[in-house]
Design goal:
alpha+beta; 3 helices; 8 strands; globular
Length: 131
């Protein structure tokens, strides 16, 4: 597997569509950062790092739904790919659904949401958009 971020987003997308409560993804620093941003922004309930006997391990993500059972994660879209990296400055961050969604960025300060990156005035690689 060459793109762990795309794998994580696809697993989340599929698990949400199938109404699963949790989903397991391969552990990496970038995936932990994305899970942390999703938790801080209220898109997932939480996540745990699991030891599955391999060197890499797993991240178990608890998916969040509304009280009526609807999806909170409606759309996860990968922007920057290994074959075509996309970098943005603070001025060029996209407005996801006029500010109702978030953009996830990899910056020099770690993985941040677009709101956090604007507050810190930091640009970076635009990993994904979430709404």
């Amino acid at each position: 597997m060459s793109d762990t971020i795309a794998d994580m987003l696809t697993r989340l997308r599929n698990a949400t569509a199938a109404k699963h409560k949790t989903v397991d993804v391969k552990n990496s620093r970038i995936c932990q950062g994305i899970a942390k941003v999703l938790q801080e922004e209220g898109y997932i309930t939480g996540f745990d790092i699991l030891d599955d006997g391999t060197k890499q391990g797993l991240i178990r993500i608890a998916i969040k739904y509304t009280p009526t059972g609807e999806q909170v994660l409606r759309e996860l879209k990968r922007i920057s790919r290994p074959g075509c990296r996309v970098y943005r400055t603070v001025k060029d961050f996209p407005q996801v659904i006029q500010g109702l969604g978030i953009a996830v960025l990899s910056t020099s300060k770690g993985v941040l949401s677009d709101r956090q990156a604007r507050q810190q005035n930091i640009g970076g690689e635009l990993l994904a958009t979430v709404n």
